[in-house]
Amino acid sequence: MTQAIDKEQIVIDEFKKLSPEKQEEVIDFIQFLQFKEMQKQETVEDKEKEKQVSFLEAAKEFIGCVDGGPGDLATNKKYLEGYGK
After folding, report:
1. Distance CA 12, CA 7 (A)
2. What is the DSSP string of 35-59?
3. Which of 4, 2, 30 is closest to 15 using CA atoms?
């Protein structure tokens, strides 16, 4: 906690040493960083809102593409015994 306070005090002290023009540049830069962060958060939120696709929907083009083999992968009941427990 004191480290954050120390950093804040350092920033304030250094800011006060700058000319008014440079102080304006610092303020502009801070606002730019805040804007970038806000855009990044909106992008993450947009991605979360995108429709989630089930595995079946994503793989439907591959269903039935393998010739041979069992039609039902659950034909070996002994192998699947206890699976999912």
Report:
1. 9
2. HHHHHHHHHHHHHHHSPP--HHHHH
3. 30
Give the other-Cβ count within 10 Å of 23's Cβ.
Answer: 13
This prediction has a pTM of: 0.46
CA–CA separation, 25 and 15 (whole Å): 11
Let me know: does 37 contact 48? Beta carbons within 8 Å: no
Q: What are phi and psi of 83, to 5 degrees?
A: -70, 135
- Write down the residue that tokens 């806000």 correspond to: 38
To 5 degrees, how large is the angle CA 6–CA 7–CA 8? Answer: 90
pLDDT tens sequence across 32-84: 999 999 888 877 777 777 777 788 888 888 887 877 776 676 777 777 777 77
Q: How far is CA 30 from the centre of its chain?
A: 23
Whole-angstrom CA distances from 34 to 26, 29, 77 are: 12, 9, 58
